[in-house]
Amino acid sequence: MKLLEDRILKDGKVLEGNILRVDSFVNHMMDTVLMDELAKEMYNRYKDCKVTKVLTVEASGIGFAYAVARLFACPMVFAKKSRSSNVQGDVYTSPVDSFTHGKTYNIIVSKDYITKDDSVLVIDDFLALGNALKGLISILEQAGASLVGAGTIIEKGYQKGGDGLREKGVRVESLAIIDEMDGKNIKFRPEN
Amino acid sequence: MKLLEDRILKDGKVLEGNILRVDSFVNHMMDTVLMDELAKEMYNRYKDCKVTKVLTVEASGIGFAYAVARLFACPMVFAKKSRSSNVQGDVYTSPVDSFTHGKTYNIIVSKDYITKDDSVLVIDDFLALGNALKGLISILEQAGASLVGAGTIIEKGYQKGGDGLREKGVRVESLAIIDEMDGKNIKFRPEN
Lengths: 192, 192
Hints:
Strand order of the largest sheet of chain A: 6-7-5-4-8-9-10-11
Oligomer: homodimer
Structural class of chain A: alpha/beta
């Protein structure tokens, strides 16, 4: 999506270790005008699917997930993170390795809020190795819910998480896919 | 706000220890249709103020803060939580005692995203003792930014955090204020 690619080139910062920081418009500070446009685009890509719920994981996915869910006029559920392995209660849970933080945490969703009757669009802000999405998809499997697909704002194509999911038959829509990032040189994957 | 009060009476659950759970429509699962209505009401209460940014704290405040900020067409900034007292970098930080979790954590905002030129509306989902709001207000003071006011979805009036802030001259708007909660009997403060 050109609007997003242009903004990444303008305001994104590539830090040492090939880390892309988009804190000034995607996370930490969200540009709500841009985010509403991104949400419209995501809605358009999935509007012909029956979506009964949008699922994300706290914290930085929540804003975009809300913006998408409101266009479907459906509820938005966010998985909670817990560092404790001792998760109790009537919940679905899945371990997720965090690339950014170098830790493993559990994501948790109450059994009340995702059920076998749901058709779920899974949303996150970033897609790198795909661990968060895999954890969310595992929760849908535990619930017996249908996975409509996944949607992310920025995919780091070179980390292969998105393509790995696509090879398994998961529909993954990312609004900008970065295939190469070398210092300040960012190369986006052409859109189909 | 009657729409919200009715929904709390219908779907809220009062648990032992006078805990109100609204997980099925405010946090964990958000009813985006309701949330958009609540955001419109909050926007109407503050629309005559110059609001340049909406500030909240992760995680459960983010959805509502986004819904409000998009109506002002302004950025939404969320403070991050850290359990480490060793916070580094160019940030503002403030300690917050969590009533719900019985812990103290630091909230952190990058100095880049709140400045002395900002007029900020502080948003959260719940207001009990007011500790999170006080932490966010402290960050505005550190930044030299102007505080327009605070806005929350549900205020537990009997815990006095909101009234304490009002006595200090802070404008606090809550869409439902619970003045008494005894088992299943919830008594709302009449609106002015």
